[in-house]
Design goal:
This protein is of the alpha+beta class. It is built from nine helices and 14 strands. Strands 1, 4, 5, 6, 7, 8, 9 and 14 form an eight-stranded mixed beta sheet that branches. A four-stranded antiparallel beta sheet has the order 11-12-10-13. A two-stranded antiparallel ribbon has the order 2-3. Bound molecules: (3R)-3-hydroxy-3-methyl-5-(phosphonooxy)pentanoic acid.
């Protein structure tokens, strides 16, 4: 018997960063992210539950990718109790990203959330717990996505999400993310994120290795406390339209702390490139000179996410083209914005 499901799921950008984990992909501190609109994975999963030869094949951007199979099989082991039919099946995954290859954009959040959605969809078709996609269904998608890649658990909701137990945030949990879009001011619901591609090179240090470094870091305890404090301050600032200065201060501090942690261990590394620092200085100068509330955040890499209200898009994009694009690899940037979450695809 064959089953098939297709979903698209977005990437997300953390404003308060998840960096440090324990147990099976559990976070050391809560994180808060924007869900993106245009950086998506589109995935189709086909499952033959009575295949003569159980196994896995993975296609990525139209090409066979045996290199991805080991990671996905480890993930299947972790989720085997929820999807027992996976063990005797042949699974075929066909995955395409809408963002350019070699743009240095991490695809694990969009890919693992898309995979979680496809598997949950197929479980419903097979006749597992036949719940209609309601709140609990999405919560379970978030749990499954988290087991694939921690940050993926935040991609399943529109707008914004919080993952990890956070003071004063009712319902927050380490095992899954919760939707946060209803709690933010409309100003943030269509915020822009222009991703400046400073380098498209593969990550020099995997996020798995990065999280592991936190285990031996002298500053780790202070960092986790600071992240918890930042989350409370940011959640409060985003609930209203008159606290953009606080939003900016927390976002930029989080980005720089993430990179400072990488530079502070016994085997330090630097993921920023000269262009990253040049852009940060340009952002500070532009904001001071114009008063336009644009700020930056960084992922675990050299690219810069410029965050700003939709109302300022015209002038900010003019400045990007006039001034910032010269720091981008081949002039590349992606114009993204806060998005509406995953979507089931026909086919
Ligand atoms: O989900 P992972 O294990 O790839 O970790 C993601 C870590 C950061 O992207 C740096 C921060 C975050 O919260 O997304």
């Amino acid at each position: 018997m064959n089953y098939r499901a297709s979903w698209q799921s977005p990437s997300n950008i953390a404003l308060v960063k998840y960096w440090g984990k324990h147990g099976i992909q559990l976070p050391r501190n809560p994180s808060l992210s924007f869900t993106l609109a245009r950086c998506l994975t589109k995935m189709t999963v086909e499952v033959n539950v009575d295949a003569a030869l159980p196994g896995l094949t993975v296609m990525y951007d139209g090409w066979p990718r045996p290199a991805f199979e080991a990671k996905i099989l480890t993930f299947f082991d972790l989720i085997g109790d929820r999807f027992p039919w996976l063990r005797g099946s042949h699974v075929h995954i066909d995955s395409v990203n809408t963002f350019p290859h070699g743009a240095g954009i991490a695809s694990s959040a969009s890919a693992m959330s898309a995979l979680a959605l496809c598997l949950m969809d197929i479980r419903d078709q097979i006749g597992g717990p036949n719940s209609k996609p309601g709140g609990e269904w999405w919560q379970e998608v978030s749990v499954v996505a988290r087991l694939g890649s921690g940050s993926a658990c935040r991609s399943v909701y529109p707008g914004a999400a919080i993952w990890g137990v956070a003071d004063g945030i009712a319902g927050s949990h380490d095992a899954y993310a919760i939707p946060w879009s209803d709690r933010i001011d409309p100003l943030y619901r269509d915020f822009r994120d222009t991703i400046l591609i400073v380098s498209g090179a593969e990550k020099a240090v995997s996020s798995t290795a990065g999280h592991a470094l936190m285990n031996d870091l002298a500053y780790a305890v202070t960092r986790y406390a600071e992240a918890r404090r930042h989350l409370g301050v940011l959640a409060d600032a985003m609930s209203r339209a008159d606290a953009l200065d606080i939003f900016i201060a927390v976002c930029e501090s989080e980005a720089l702390q993430l990179h400072a942690l990488m530079m502070s261990g016994p085997a330090p590394f630097i993921l920023m490139e000269p262009g990253t620092v040049a852009i940060i200085k340009e952002v500070w100068r532009y904001r001071r000179d114009t008063g336009i509330p644009v700020c930056f955040t960084l992922d675990a890499g050299p690219n810069v996410h410029l965050l700003y209200p939709d109302a300022n898009a015209g002038e900010v994009m003019g400045w990007v083209r006039d001034v910032l694009v010269r720091h981008c690899a081949d002039g590349q940037y992606i114009e993204d914005h806060v998005g509406s979450g995953p979507q089931r695809l026909i086919g």
